[in-house]
Each structure stands twice: as C-alpha cells, then as structure tokens.
Amino acid sequence: MLKTAGPAIDAESLLPLDGALITHDHHIDHLDHSGRSLLPSIPQIITTTEGAARLGGTTKGLADFEQTMLPLPDGGNLLVTALPAQHGPDEIAASTGQVIGFLLSGAGLPSIYISGDNWSLDIGRMIAERIAPVDVAIMYGGGARFAELLDGAEITMPKEDSVKVAKMLSARQIIPAHTEGWAHFKEGYQEFRTAFYDGGLGQAFIDAAFGERIVLRI
User: Fold this and answer.
1) Residues 6+ apart with CB under 8 A from 13
2) Distance between CA atoms of 61 and 49, rounded to whole angstroms?
3) Strand, helix or coil at 36?
4) Which of 60, 96, 108, 98 is nearest to 81 (CA)?
5) Rounded-to-integer distance, Cα 135 and Cα 79, Å
6) pTM flag (> 0.85)
7) 53 to 61, 70, 93: CA distances (angstroms)
C-alpha cells in the first residue's frame, strides 16, 4: 500500500485517549505505524478476535454482535457492539481477512454506527434492520481497489450502496471517512460527498476536511 499524504493530525496530539476501536489491524491503512505507537498508552482497545490475538496485551476481541462496556471518564458506560462486515466480494473475502464495524450506544448517549470496510450491501441491510434508526453514521468510502485483486474490483462498499445503507439506517447525521491519503483509494472525498448529495442526503452529510475535528450536536 502506498501512502499519498501524511497524518492530518500528529499522533501525540491525540493523547490522552480513553479507548481505541480498530475495525481491523492487519491493513496498514487502518492501523499504521504511528497508530501502533500509541497503543501502549491506550487503556482500552477493541478489535476483531483475530486482531486481538495478534496485538496481544489487554486488547479485547469481539465477534459479530458481541458486546462490551467501556467506562466513561465522567461516569456511566459506553456500550460497544461489534457488527459484521465483509471486505470485498465473496471471491476474495477470505483473503482480505476478518473485519468488523461498530455500534456505539448508551443511556443518554447518541447511537453511532461505524461501517468499517464493509463491502456487502446485504450485510448493510441486515445491520440496518437490527439497529435503525441511528443518530450518526460514519460511512467508509474511497472506492478501494487493487489491480491484482479481481481485476481491480472494489473491496469497499461502492458509494451508491453507502447512500442506500445510510437511508436504511435513517441516519440523522452522516460523517465521511476512509476517502483520502492512500493510492488504492480511487474515489476521493468530493466524489463520495456528491453521491450523498445526489442521493438526497445532503442535509444529513457533515462536510469535513481531512483532519478536521467535528463536534456533534445531538
């Protein structure tokens, strides 16, 4: 994988962190070297079951729909639910490895869906049937593809399907992610944004520049 831009935010400036949710650890565009350097300072790390075995330590691995609680700094708990995901078409899903998404929820807290690198519209539909509506949907885009994998077929969800899933989720706010910074991302932020505006979700779409911090008002 070829990185085309450096980090938008210096890793050390993110500290202290209460926890980290890692959709998968085995692809460097999701956990790069600077991200790995932070892990020893993060008290709570949640990822896939296979990823937890690789990362070791106190990392907690979750299977699909398994849940865990994260204590919040000001009291209360954040419920983290692992959601299924498939990183590419059936023919290559086994080789791209185990990936998950997340649902964050809790008493008095907004519900936040994180898609992860899910390619499958069927999985997106199944998730929506279980968790909709959500307050926030963080949708991964980028049109990721490699020439050597299925003749360059997309291995992340096509932008048109991302719009469909966001509608199924009845998401009040939509945040784009996973669209910039790597050569295998063949569709950038503007193309992802245009798909949501053309799909009638412009009012819900949160315009966010690369590295911009977003304060959500729920």
Assistant:
1) none
2) 4
3) helix
4) 60
5) 15
6) yes
7) 8, 20, 20
CB 162 within 8 Å of CB 142: no
User: Which stretch of DSSP H or E encloses residue 124?
Assistant: helix 121-131
Tokens at 196, concatenated = 């949501």
Supply 92's token pair. Answer: 């290559």
**172 pLDDT exceeds 70?**
yes
CA dist 152 and 89 (Å) reads 11
DSSP state of 193: H
The CATH superfamily of 64-198 is: Ribonuclease Z/Hydroxyacylglutathione hydrolase-like (3.60.15.10)
Tokens 């593809």, located at residue: 145
Q: Which residue has the tokens 């185990």?
A: 98
The residue type of 154 is E
**44-84 pLDDT, tens digit each:** 999 999 999 999 988 999 999 999 999 988 888 999 999 99
Q: Where are the domains of the chain?
A: 64-198
Q: How many C-beta atoms lie closer than 10 Å to residue 70's C-beta?
A: 18
> What pLDDT score was predicted for residue 173?
96
CB 86 within 8 A of CB 56: no
